[in-house]
Amino acid sequence: MRDIALTRARTAGFKLPQLPGVVWMLIAMIAAFSAWTPSFFSLANLTNVALQSSNLAMLALPMTLIVMSEGIDLSVGSTASLVGVMFALVTLGTGSVALGAISGVLTGLLVGLINGWLVAVHALPPFVVTLATLGIVQGASLLIAEGQVTNGLPPVAHWLYDGTVLGVSTPIVGAALTYVLFHRLLYHTRFGGYVFALGGNREALQVSGVGIRRWLIAAYAMGGTFAAFAGLILAARIDGGQPTAAASMEFDAIAAVVVGGTSFDKGKGGLPGTLLGVIAVGVLKNGLNLASVASATQVTMIGLFVILAVLVDGRRRA
Amino acid sequence: MSTTLKVAEMQLSPTAVTAVSRVMVVVLLGIGLTWASDGFFTPANLVSVLRQASLLFLLACGLTLVILAGGLDLSVGANLGLCACLAAAVIKGTGSPLCGALVGVSVGSAIGVVNGLLVTTLRLPAFIATYGMLWILHGLTYAFMAGETIHGFPPGFRYIGGGFLAGVPVPVIVTGLSLLAGTVLLQRTVFGQELYAIGANPVAAFLSGIPVKRRQITVYAVSGAMAGLASLVYLARMNAAEGDIGEPLLMPAIAAVLVGGTALSGGRGSLIGTMVGALLLTLVLNGMNLLGVNANWQPIITGAISLGSLLLERLGAPRRA
Amino acid sequence: MAELNARPAPKTPGSAETRKAPLLELSGITKRFSGVTALDGMSLSLWPGEVHVLMGENGAGKSTLMKVLCGAHEADDGKFFSNGAQVTLGSTGAARALGVSVIFQEFTLVPHLSVARNIFLGREPVVGPLRQLDHRKMHADARRLLDRLAVDLDTRLEVHSLSTAQQQLVEIAKALSVDARILVLDEPTAALSDRESERLFALIRELKARGVAMVYISHRMAEVFSIGDRVTVIRDGKHVATMLPGQTSPDQLVSLMVGRKVDTNYSRSYCHVPGPVVADVRQVVSRTGLRDVSLKVHRGEIVGLTGLVGSGRTELARAVFGADPIESGSIELFGEPAQGGPHQRRALGVALVPESRKTQGLALEHSVHANLMVSALGKHSAAGFLQLRRAARTVQDLIHRLSIATSTAGKAAGKLSGGNQQKIVIGKWLAAQARLYILDEPTRGIDVGAKEEVFRLVDKLVKQGASVLMISSELHEIVQVCDRAYVMREGRIAGHLGRDQLREQAILSLAMNHA
Predict the structure, then answer these.
(1) ipTM associated with this complex
(2) What global pTM score does this model have?
(3) Which residue of A243, B273, C100, C204 shows the fewest CB atoms closer than 10 Å?
(4) B neighbour chains, 3+ CB pairs within 8 Å
């Protein structure tokens, strides 16, 4: 029985020694925050953490694939904001939430495709490309939203955040579906193996006659598309589109991926780890919030975590 | 043989052609803007353009050096922000611009050294190490400022940003000196040539006896110090320090470096190129302002210019083995 | 000596008689690379179920032949026949279609995927409209594949956790899963222990029984006679002989591999009275593979260092130059214990001309001037500032002295020919006034004229008091140029040959453990 569990765990893409890192950190944080702030360990608060984390999960899960392919996408935060703005404008303009949502998702997909095209076809470094598209998308959001009314979404739109599906909050359902989808993709399709190969040994793909570019573009396209979904939920939450709504969310997403154990090379990584990383980031921010720590200091701490996580990962490999 | 020929020999040959074409673009832009807008070719506007380009160059200068040596520093903007806020607080607190300046430059250098250590000794990939630093510094800056603004600096200090010296704006003089010092460093010193060698082929540089790690840490420190210096000039010009002072500066700095012809992979490029790049970018943004284009187009244009430069470089250099 | 191109004696009765034509036949295959002829009318025939050993020195053309077989390089001349019919082998796709699969020493495995997924990468069995992976079938198929090869590996293990030997088995299984009929094995036992080698041989015998043809490239003489059905010797890209092991001997094979006619008129006066010791390496062990290496270099000598690829020569060079750390043992240079890395070595006067000049010795985009000056910047500066005129003079002087063919010193180094590039790499150390030169394959890939110039230069250097440690795979070079030579094998010094004993045959015997 144990052997099967062991090998299942290995097949699932993360090794047991990895697990303690993030898990211990989580346990330590939960313990510390529960002791420090009594209001932490309550159902209401933990539900709140889950709710906040679900949006981040939608950014972090596709980011895992991108990082595994030796890339990175810094533009997902601003993409989510842009999608929120598009969603609000189209919904308010046409009166149709469906149209608004579709235009939002298509926008995200477009940004992702552009990123992918520049990285895969033109072999430009991912960090510079996505840094540039971050700025471009940010500017576009501000332009489009300027002087427009982007508040006051119809109640149907609110369902995206406030509603429930079978008694569970919509965002959490969304995150769960995202996880299931990416889990299926990474571990149960051919494409998943290609993602591992893109980071682990691209020659393996060449030798097997598999196209490298198209799958790289696909990874970035997914990043943009799911950033769009996150953007829709965010817009529902703040009742409108804000050009800076998701600014800096890409940083949290990257932190979650890195803390969860995914490396920037060698095609090592895993979705369970990222999920735990998302929860860890969520717990950290929530706990610090309750302890009245300024959000600026939170950012600093997350930055330190990122550097520590990459360090530890490097040491482990050495 | 004249010494200028020697300098040309030590620089990388094909950049001469592309450098000239970049200068031509700047000139053409200038001509175009003069024709398109009345407000362009006025003393006040030209001075403003020069000042702006100078500030941009100061920040991009250190970044250029790091990239030339094969590295990357995404934290320069945030570095500037933190140094500016710390220096501002010190100036207000002690009333001494000199103390503020010392604090600014030393903090900047210290951050640079940390970056250098992360990348060389701890072997973190440069982009993630400096990206993490970016956020750490942002966080520290915001936490330090706690939403407040520091303003109202002594006129002696403000002179650095807004004053004139022999008819030339002070920032331009500071920039000119930096450009001169930096170019001499790159072209005429052992250190500079070693930087180029490390950027072009770090393995060969190592096997040629160059102490690669030590040089890399130094160049990151220099980049940090330049960010500190730039922060002082910014402070003097804006006459105010806020938590987000550094945020929007990274993209223009990178754009200036890329447009100036410095290769991201290292070993190729120059400070003069970055200066031209800074001028070009500033002219474009200035032109947009004068023509009444919505300010929100600026980050879009900056990003597009960066991507365009990268694509041009990639398409024009397939000879790379 | 008997040269046969006959069919192998069938080991299992009734299998080979039915074959009429070889599975794959190469005839007159020629391949040139910018002036160097790597393969010259090479011929080879492969029959099903035979292990065809390919032997030759370093640089004889084995790796080019491998690349041609797998379709990575297209032959310039010659014909290929598959089962008697002519075919083209110009791409990896064509090679795959013909059933050729090469097992290189660097594996094409994805570290964090399971064994099964690696075997079927790109062809994983899928099921259902959503094309989901059929894990059960994939692992079952993988299991069956491995079982038939008598390999006992859990198919769910991630490849990075396997030993090199196990990874090799997975790589072979991967090749067989695409129905490879011809396997090319490049030094398969190089990284294996004896027991693992035995397991590999068992697998090879199993494959023979199934009719798979194998090209087995190896330097290990014992293997030729234990597992080979036929052996072909290649030399200078040409086919020298093909024989049955039973009809030849190790001595004969060695003599077939060497004995190239010397193509230069170069000669030098050898050093019989060496000066004091300049480099004293004692019992050095390193994580890069050196296992107890000791040697000495005296002033005024050219000491050769040779051995087969992978025997540790470059690693030793790097250790002496400080590029790699050593775990135990000592290195003394010019009487002082050596500290630090290349930076300190340069100051001491030690130089390294690396094996791969393009990737390790030069900044190809930079000018000839910059490359020549890179190790001598300090010597041409005052207070950190470069003395441009002095530097220019040194550069001009070097260009002249070394006859570097370039119109100006500002030309990019990447535009020069291989020979001139090598002169630049040597030149940069001349500029740095080095006293001990470690040269790693200095004449690789350069034309005859340039080779001779390099030799003359090296001779002049030692006559002026410098010392040289020269690594070369070209045995006649070692014999012609060096005062004496060390032969390495598997991380150790296998032997030392003084001037009088220095013969190609002797070197090769030591290198291959057939003394």
Answers:
(1) 0.88
(2) 0.87
(3) C204
(4) A, C
